[in-house]
Each structure stands twice: as structure tokens, then as C-alpha cells.
Write a structure and sequence with these properties.
The chain has three helices and five strands, in the order βββααββα. The strands form two sheets. It has a three-stranded antiparallel sheet, with no helix packed on it. It has a two-stranded antiparallel sheet with strand order 4-5. The C terminus is likely disordered. It comes from Durio zibethinus.
Length: about 120
């Protein structure tokens, strides 16, 4: 299983790396781990138009999102996944890293359901 690690590169751009138990790592456009990942990753792939991992040389996901779009996408993805996977927890923590520092947002399962319903009604 690979695990994502996030931060910023030398140019100040956000970056995500996946790594595994034997020390292999790869820079990717986004990542997910643990329960629900089989539900979440295909959704992210479709929304972010990720290039095929079979393309050589490897390419990062190129769909740019502003902060509120990215946060809304994460909320939508987890709202959907919590409806289908009973092992996903009852609370979501979104950590936003940018030049202003680190900010955290929290949502509980009930709020995720309300958010999901609101998104469907738009």
C-alpha cells in the first residue's frame, strides 16, 4: 500500500508524493490511502482528468483548482464514499497548506451528508 505525503517544492508549488514500505516514491498530482480508496480514486481521476499512469514519461495531473474548488471536491468525494463504505470514519479533516500557513477544516458524517445533498440540488 502506498501512502501520500504532501508539502511544497523548491518553487513553492504544492506537491504530493506516494511512497511504500520498501522506500519507492513517486510525485503525483493527488493521492489517497486506506479504506474507501477504491471508491475515491476513480472519482478523483475523472474529475481531475489524470493522465494514464502508463504514459511515459510520467505526467502529473494538470487540472488546476482554486482553493474553494479543491475543498468542495474533497467534501463531495468523502460524502459519496461515506455512503458506500461503512469503515470510513465519522469525521473528515481537511488540511490546507499554502503560503499563508496551515489551516484545518473539520466535518462530521452528518455534515457530509448535508453537503452531499446540497451539491445534488445545485
Amino acid at each position: 500500500m502506498s501512502c501520500p505525503s504532501v508539502g511544497s517544492d523548491a518553487e513553492g508549488k504544492g506537491c504530493v508524493f506516494t511512497y511504500d514500505a520498501v522506500g519507492s516514491y513517486e510525485r503525483v498530482g493527488y493521492g489517497n490511502q486506506r479504506t474507501g480508496s477504491t471508491l475515491i480514486m476513480p472519482f478523483l481521476d475523472s474529475q481531475l482528468k489524470s493522465p494514464s499512469p502508463l504514459l511515459l514519461p510520467a505526467q502529473d495531473a494538470v487540472t488546476p483548482l482554486v482553493k474553494y474548488e479543491a475543498v468542495d471536491l474533497v467534501k463531495t468525494v468523502f460524502a459519496s464514499a461515506t455512503e458506500r463504505d461503512i469503515y470510513i470514519g465519522d469525521k473528515l479533516e481537511i488540511v490546507i497548506l499554502n503560503a499563508d500557513g496551515i489551516r484545518r477544516e473539520y466535518m462530521h458524517k452528518a455534515s457530509l451528508r448535508k453537503f452531499y445533498i446540497m451539491v445534488l440540488k445545485l
